[in-house]
Amino acid sequence: METAFWICLFIVFYTYVGYGLLLYILVRLKESFRPPVSYPLLSREELPPLTLFITAYNEETVVNDKMRNCLELDYPPEKLRILWVTDGSDDRTNQLLAQWPQAQVLFQPQRQGKTAAMNRGMRHVETPLVVFTDANTHLNRKALLEIVHAFADPQVGCVAGEKRIKAQNKDTAAGGGEGLYWKYESALKALDSRLYSAAGAAGELFAIRRELFEPMPDDTLLDDFILSLHIVMKGYRIAYCASAYASESGSADMREEEKRKVRIAAGGLQSVWRLRALLNPLKYGIFSFQYISHRVLRWTLTPLLLFLLFPLNAWLAYATARPALYLTLLLLQVLFYIGGWGGYRLSQRQIKNKFLFIPYYFLFMNLNVIRGFRYLWKRKGQTSGVWEKVQRGRPH
Questions:
Q1: pLDDT over 50 at 277, yes or no
Q2: Do β-strands 80-85 and 103-106 pair in parallel, antiparallel, or remain unpaired?
Q3: Is residue 280 part of a domain?
């Protein structure tokens, strides 16, 4: 029983803290022997044509803001194609887009999900680079230039931008917790990229070489993740580009955030199975280590072990010959869970307390990974990737 407890504790610690520390050390060692290669900036005449690819379903509230943001980007307009795929939209999305001559719109009445829309839309893309972004995100002005510069490395097949959460009117657990989570994720992605390759891209902003696109099954839940890792499987790297970022509002509340987290967890489980070849370090080397440490453990084993720690700890505090050690660890766990419960209560009352939002959001994330098993099981037999949209909060 003691061995099981310490194994569980080690895996939980390694997944959320230890891997980041080890990654930092490995990056420093690598760069001390082999400094990063820098590539010259392209002139505006040398910049390649690219497509800004946006899938949208009933996005009438953000269409005009998104188009204004697209046209404010620092990239030669004659080399920028803005493509919207709006399958199934039955609000004013298409009518509003019709007022923007710079936008090309592909529409079909049937809604088959985002992955099916990407598969269909990519058949109409001819530019060498494709930048994927969401309708509800805003890109920084230099984002496209920074992404194109990252492709100067011929081994880079995909570029992952940074996701940022806008400050909201009230610092909720949904917005505040998600913001803290993405700051930590961004730091890990940057280190992953410096060691070898980022372990996936987020759909808010990422880019690929067009010839590396591979159609995915329509029921794919994490299209951005699957697509980017298929590129790694072809021998290319995912570069992380923090200077190209997409900003969006956090979920309106924790109920909306739960929908998103459960779907992502289910998509993670689906991805681990479909990308199981990446678990072979004999074939994929250092990337298998990164992928398992950063993604697989979070989406499979670690959440189960996290919640198993408490009953194991309680039993050892009662039955072991060294009760003081296990009573201390049990007390720390109790305090952490109390902190999480306090964060939950404050979140219901919309009272700001970032300190308590941390344990609450951490427990909330892991609980929703377990719920993701059920979500994926309920989807068994479905052939589309359609999912319920999440309502976003309003920024300042």
A1: yes
A2: parallel
A3: yes
